[in-house]
Amino acid sequence: MVDMESSLAEGLVLEAVDALTDTMIGEISTLVRIPSVSGTAAENDAQIHVARMLREGGLEIDLWPIDLAETFAKPAFPGVEVHRDEAWGLVGRLVGSGDGPTLMLNGHVDVVPIGDPEAWSFPAFDGEIRNGNLHGRGSCDMKAGLIAAHWAVQAIRSAGIRLRGDLLLAAVQGEEDGGLGTFALLERGWRADACLIPEPTDLDIVPANSGSLTFRLRVHGHATHASRRTEGVSAIEKFWPIWHALTELETCRHAHVDPMAARWKLAHPLSIGTVHAGDWASSVPDLLIAEGRLGVALDEPVEHAREEFEAAVARTCEADPWLRDHPVEVEWWGGQFASGRLHAESDLVERMQRAHAIASESRPNDVWAAPYGSDLRLLVGQGGIPTLQYGPGDVARAHGPDELVPVDDIVITARALALMALDICGVAG
After folding, report:
1. What does the pLDDT look like over 318-347, one tens digit per residue?
2. Which of 285, 303, 337 is the last residue of a domain?
3. Total structural domains within the chain
C-alpha cells in the first residue's frame, strides 16, 4: 500500500525527471564523446568527468586512487584483461535523514574498443541523436544507464524531497574486463541495503547472471620447412581435435539449463575469441595460442566449470599420440566472472516491477537471467547486497558497430530508478 505522502512524492519526482530530460540526454552525449576504452587514459578522464558532475550536482563524493598493486594481490580479485597504471574509485552520496535503508545505483564508465571504424555508419564516439536513438560506443553499455541514474538522483533533489536513507551513486572502472571498480569500492567498505545496475536490459528485469572465465590454450607442434611438412607437426592441425572437443563440451554443459536462462539458445556459451599460430609462411607452426571464454552456469562453482574444461582438454590429448607427449597447456587469465543471483527471499524484483509499470505507463517487461557476467555477482557475493539489473537499450546493440540506445528507454529508466529510490530509501516526513 502506497500512502498519500509517498504518492505525492512519486508525482513530484516524475515531473522533475521529465523536466530534466533535455539536460540528461545532453550529459549522456557528452560522456559518450569521451572515448573511455578500458585501459586507456580516457577511461580515467571519464571517471573524473563524472566525479565533477556529481560534485556539481550537490552530492558528497568519495573519489580515491585505487591502489592497483594492493588490489590485484587480493585473493578474491576477479582479474583484468588490460594494463592500467591508474584507476579511480568514485561514490557519490545523497545524504538521507539517517533512519532509512540505503540504495546504491552502480554503473561503469569503461567501454570496449570500437573494432573496424569502417563498419560504423557514423563516428563511433559522436554521441548524436538520430531517429529517437542516441548513438555511439558506450551509449548502450552503459553510459545512458549511468547518467539516467545520476538524473534520477537530481530529480529527487530538484523536487525538494528528503529521503530517509542514503542514496549512493557508484561510478566504476574496469567492469568490462573483470570488475576492478566494484571490487575496489566493496574493499573500501561501501555497502547498501539494495543495489540497482542500469545495464542494458531492454527495460526487463535481470536478477541473475551466468558467469564467464577467460582462458588461454597453448598447443605445441614441431617446426620444420614447409617443403618437408610431413617431418614436422603443425600446431594448427593439433588444435582441431581440441576445437571439436570444446564444441562437444559446450553441448554437454547445456543438457540442463536453469529455467531463468531458458530463453537463450546458449545460456552460458563457450567461445574461442582469438587464434594465433606460426611466425613464417613457409614454416610448419610449432605453437598455436587460442584465447576464449568459458560460460559458467547459474549457481555453478567456478572450480567445477574449470575442472570440466580441463578434463575435456586432457581427454583429447590422451587420445592423440603427439598431444599425449606434448599436452595442451590451459591457463586461466583475465576477467574471471562467477555467476550471480539475487537471493530468493528478496522482494526487489516485485518492487522493480511496480516502479517500471508506473514509470513506463504499463509497458510490459519480463524477468530473466543474462548469459553474460556483470558486477552483480560481486555485489551479491562479496558485498552481500541484494542486486538486480534494469536499464535502457538492448545488449545486442552493445560491443558491435552502430551501438545505440533509445531515448525513450533512457527517460523511463530515470523515472523508474527515482521511484525505486523513494520506495527503498523512504521519504522523510
Report:
1. 999 999 999 999 999 998 999 999 999 999
2. 337
3. 2
